[in-house]
């Protein structure tokens, strides 16, 4: 299902504008939504989920105009949503919580609902803890339970806001592997600050900054934004302040330090050009826009 | 309808597992019946119906208050737990979820009160060696105890959404003692009106009519003798206020969602 946003503007009480004339086209498949804190990712996800209204602009998903309450409700029947800060009822088991979510999503037949609950529990690897109270779940289990509820109605559009935030590397990998299997005809929008989430799962992405999309296209195109700008610098001397500001990563070895640097020209005569990755392209765009770490 | 049933079932399931609420209601209810302080020799010569009516009012002295204190804040719980957005995105109707929550909560506290009330009835039945207190007791539960619990459930959901749960709890406790237990001859109080979740209107009008002066002659909760029609009006008023409170909360939530 194609999702199209045109001229979206959202200003919260207090006058903070989080989205400003945002235009975005989200095709079917896994779509990454990158951006620093405050870029407007969560507001955009909330608007797409229908829990927040834009002040201006239109959102269309498939044939539905989400500005119309009836059409929004029909769209929500095809939607799975994992909010960034998902809480759970601590006294309910994971299975009971999913059963409740299933009733709200309109899975009316108890037999079908229970079968679907078992399926998503299995898919998210929660079978063994399904009957434990959710209050005792780890952060990773809670995110997976959130993902399980989002999948209950086999949604055509899946919105996942920071699905790996705060998880240990093993849980992050587990969720990324799961996400990679969810694409196909489904439209999966993955909002994240972690470029690895996008590089390991998505074919297309957008970068939000200051409430606008400063990039949208395929992930290879995002990496190309840093073509000719990424350097490897090895030195045993400290870098100048200007050089240090351009460092992306640093590995300290016994006799020297190896820096990865984004700069328009070689920072030192010994610098070697590197092939840019997605993170390099992202950082170049964010720095160019002036919203990221300088 | 599915969302209403699902929400009611979920709320019921969560509250029914609150052991502390079972314990608090049992202690409050049974302690209330002990306050009746009616000698067994007196009570056994009353008709079973009247005896059950007196006990029902005493059982109800603070049970609805306990329920109200426990339920304050349930309406805003989804927001506090970070679940509101998720539930909103399911496409289910907000009103259905709210009414489901109200019905589930009312059913849960009623189940807990009924269990303790049945213990009281079994004791009364054993004293009389008769099943009559059980039969009248179930009727008294429906007419005296349940309307008060339903009223307090609704008002607590709505009231705690308007104020903070802590402020609401203080107000509820103040209202309960002033509007139910304060004898009207001492100061103007809602206790003199049919809006009486304590249930003494219903108990007096439907169960204690066979006693001279009704409950007024027997209980320290001094009331005038009531008719069956007044009892019915009191029950109807309690239920109507409950419905109005939940409907008001539904409107408030809808406005808040539109503003957000």
Structure characterization notes:
The complex is a heterodimer of chains A (294) and B (260). Chain A is α/β, with parallel strands linked by helices and 294 residues long. Chain A folds into two domains: 3-218, P-loop containing nucleotide triphosphate hydrolases (Rossmann fold), CATH 3.40.50.300; 230-275, no CATH class. In chain A, 32% of the residues lie in helices and 28% in strands. Chain A has ten helices and 14 strands. Chain A has helices at residues 41-49, 69-76, 94-104, 110-123, 139-151, 169-180, 195-199, 219-224, 241-245, 278-289; strands at residues 3-12, 16-26, 29-34, 56-61, 64-65, 79-82, 157-161, 187-192, 204-209, 212-218, 230-235, 247-252, 257-262, 272-273. In chain A, the strands form three sheets. In chain A, strands 6-7-8-3-9-10 form a six-stranded mixed beta sheet, sandwiched between helices. In chain A, helix 3 packs across helix 4. Chain A starts with a strand and ends in a 5-residue tail after the last helix. The model of chain A has no long low-confidence stretch (mean pLDDT 90). Chain B is mostly helical and 260 residues long. Chain B has one domain (2-259). Chain B is 73% helix and 0% strand. Chain B has helices at 2-16, 19-35, 40-43, 48-59, 63-71, 77-81, 84-88, 94-128, 132-162, 165-181, 200-206, 228-259. In chain B, helix 2 (19-35) crosses helix 8 (94-128) and helix 9 (132-162) crosses helix 10. The longest helix of chain B has 35 residues, at 94-128.
């Amino acid at each position: 299902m194609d999702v199209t946003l045109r001229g979206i503007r959202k200003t919260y009480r207090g006058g903070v504008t989080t989205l400003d004339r945002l235009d975005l086209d989200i095709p079917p498949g896994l779509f990454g939504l990158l951006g620093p804190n405050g870029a407007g990712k969560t507001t955009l996800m909330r608007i797409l989920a229908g829990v927040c209204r834009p002040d201006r602009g239109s959102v269309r998903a498939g044939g539905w105009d989400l500005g119309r309450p009836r059409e929004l409700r029909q769209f929500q029947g095809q939607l799975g949503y994992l909010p960034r800060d998902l809480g759970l009822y601590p006294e309910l088991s994971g299975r009971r919580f999913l059963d409740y979510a299933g009733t709200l999503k309109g899975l009316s037949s108890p037999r079908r609902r229970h079968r679907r609950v078992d399926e998503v529990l299995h898919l998210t690897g929660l079978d063994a803890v399904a009957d434990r109270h959710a209050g005792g779940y780890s952060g990773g289990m809670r995110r997976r339970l959130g993902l399980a509820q989002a999948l209950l109605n086999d949604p055509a559009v899946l919105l996942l806001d920071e699905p790996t935030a705060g998880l240990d590397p093993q849980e992050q990998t587990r969720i990324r592997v799961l996400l990679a299997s969810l694409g196909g005809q489904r439209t999966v929008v993955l909002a994240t600050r972690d470029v690895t989430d996008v590089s390991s799962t998505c074919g297309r992405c957008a970068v939000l900054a200051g409430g606008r999309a400063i990039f949208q296209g395929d992930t290879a195109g995002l990496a190309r934004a840093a073509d000719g700008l990424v350097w490897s610098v090895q030195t045993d001397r400290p870098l100048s302040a200007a050089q240090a500001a351009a460092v992306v990563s640093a590995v300290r070895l016994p006799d020297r330090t190896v820096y990865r640097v984004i700069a328009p020209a070689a920072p030192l005569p010994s610098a070697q050009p590197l092939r840019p990755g997605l993170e390099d392209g992202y950082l170049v765009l964010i720095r160019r826009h002036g919203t990221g770490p300088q | 309808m599915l969302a209403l049933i699902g929400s009611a079932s979920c709320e019921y399931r969560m509250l029914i597992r609150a052991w502390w609420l079972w314990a608090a209601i049992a202690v409050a209810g049974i302690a209330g019946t002990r306050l009746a302080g009616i000698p067994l020799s007196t009570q056994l010569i009353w008709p079973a119906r009247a005896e059950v009516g007196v006990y029902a009012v005493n059982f109800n002295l603070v049970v609805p208050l306990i329920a109200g204190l426990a339920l304050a804040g349930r309406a805003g719980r989804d927001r506090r737990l970070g679940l509101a957005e998720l539930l909103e995105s399911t496409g289910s109707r907000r009103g259905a979820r709210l009414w489901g929550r109200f019905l589930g909560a009312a059913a849960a506290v009623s189940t807990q009160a009924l269990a303790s009330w049945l213990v009281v009835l079994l004791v009364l039945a054993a004293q009389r060696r008769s099943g009559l207190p059980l039969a009248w007791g179930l009727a008294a539960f429906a007419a005296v105890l349940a309307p008060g619990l339903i009223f307090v459930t609704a008002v607590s959901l709505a009231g705690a959404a308007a104020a903070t749960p802590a402020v609401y709890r203080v107000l509820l406790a103040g209202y309960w003692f002033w509007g139910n237990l304060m004898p009207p001859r001492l100061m103007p109080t809602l206790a003199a009106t049919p809006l009486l979740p304590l249930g003494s209107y219903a108990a007096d009008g439907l169960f204690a009519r066979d006693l001279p002066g009704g409950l007024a002659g027997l209980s320290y909760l001094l009331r005038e003798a009531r008719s069956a029609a007044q009892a019915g009006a009191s029950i109807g008023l309690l239920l109507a206020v409950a419905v109005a409170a939940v409907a008001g909360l539904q409107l408030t939530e809808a406005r808040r969602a539109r503003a957000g």
